[in-house]
Amino acid sequence: MNGFALYWRFIAVSVRSQMLYPTAFVLRFSSQFFVTIIEFGGVWVLFARFGHVRGWTFAQVALFYAIASIAFAIADGLSRGFDTVGPLFIKTGNFDRILLRPRSSALQITGQDFALTSAGRLVQGLAAFAVAIDLLKPDWGVAEFMLLAWAVAGGASLFISLKMLEGVLAFWTTEALEVANTLTYGGEAAAQYPLDIYTAWFRKLMTYFVPIGCSLYFPVALVLGHDAPGVPPWLAVLAPATGFAFLGVAAAVWRLGIRYYTSTGS
Amino acid sequence: MAQIQVENLSKSYRIAARDPGLAGAVRGLFHRRTREIAALSDVSFSLERGELLGFIGPNGAGKSTTIKILSGILRPSSGRCEVDGRVPWEQRIAHVARIGVVFGQRTQLWWDLPIIESFELLRDIYRVDGAKFGRTKDRLVEMLKIAPLLDTPLRQLSLGQRMRCEIAAALLHSPSILFLDEPTIGLDAVSKLALRDFVKDLNRAEGVTVILTTHDMHDIEALARRVIIIGNGRLLRDSSFESMRNEVLGERRLIVDFATDVGEVAVEGASIRARDGRTIEFAFDPARTAAHTLIANIARAHDVVDIRVDDPKIEEVIARFYTLHGAVES
User: Fold this and answer.
1) How many distinct structural domains can be found in chain A?
2) What is the pTM of this model?
3) Which residue among B72, B220, B262, B294 is least crowded, i.e. fewest CB within 10 A of its CB?
4) Any chain A CB within 8 A of the CB of B26?
């Protein structure tokens, strides 16, 4: 069985286990949904008061918001397991068992904890997307929708990479999760608004260091007909690929983490 | 060529030394002082295919470190190790596909899943061919008598039932080496016996190499023809079980509850080890004096309530071994 098929096998098992406790599932699903939908309500309130921010309308921001939420929800669902590397695997010694199996450790970690409840966030993202489409009434063709899907894919890869890097920290310290969370959850929050509303250093950080801007902002801005200064359309189309490149970097760091773990054994 | 070849294996850990108290913790943030702990020093041995090796030593002696290195999940600081011609930690994925590991205190099955589904998941993880899996599984299920447990989730099984399933799980991919780390811990007498029988069969009939660590001397006695004792990270002894027992367990105990207060009791062939009121513990060498002779002599001379024969506990054996070998526990 190849890695991809095995991953889905793991996920099916994880979903079944979670369904054994339906009340817990319903509660967590709805809390994810309501918390995030209230957050989106906050954006609406902001725009109802000020009309627009830096030339962006509520409808346009809703599109940014939706694409970032959808990308994050997918990433969170697929790679929530990285959150548990420290508490469930390193501290307990269960990581040894992962290493004793002839399969990728990242695949086993993520497969064993599929975050079904992030479907709540996904539903919220899709709702925001519906609101954006309804307000924008765009005359998009297939190309625009494909570009948005491509942005979601790049963004999801990027968020998965961040979670992976967060997980890898647990090999060195078990206390770093909170700091690392600022990158993932903070990254998502930042990506929910168009990048050019932020100050210069933060924009650079989000473009060159943690390329959330590349994966999400440039393509969505292009779809909305807002050229980002200095970014020609072809570059904006290619930009989400940085999300996949970042995944490669994270995978290399993960291997370093494994090497460190097998040297210290704890 | 030997299946497992270990030469001058050493492993030291660097651990952070911290001054006590809050001030110490704060200082530790800026100046990280570390010190080296030698977990394993200069261990060498080799093992032929089909051997059954007992690996004993007190907690912290280096047993787990050795097992972890042999199973590929820990890199040694120095020394060489080859298993089936592979360096375990360099070719971990290929290596772990050929070994089975059972931890007595940890599970490799899925908590909420019926056992059979855990087995099927392991089949896919280890890429076992469907038909071959069916045959191996059926044989293991029969040998370990777990057919009635297959549809039960792990969380509903007793410890003994669980351990039988764990062992089956570790063998589904037909490994050539099986590591058993304290497999009988917490098991009742019946389960222990059944487990020992199974391991013996597996080793003899199927030629699977077994490395067993345990604190239960009876496990060793029942299973291992060869025993390695490890203490303070050093290999203290590598010999047959018989010769080790003669050296260390040569002495046995006879515990006698007398009916009346007895003063000086002189019994030929035995010496007094300890006394507690009317209970006296004698030590004797069964090679020189047979237990029944000793018991008969004592019963003839005194009024006796109860007599029992005991082996020294493994901790005592190991402690005595340390003294014999001049190894001091740190």
Assistant:
1) 1
2) 0.82
3) B262
4) no
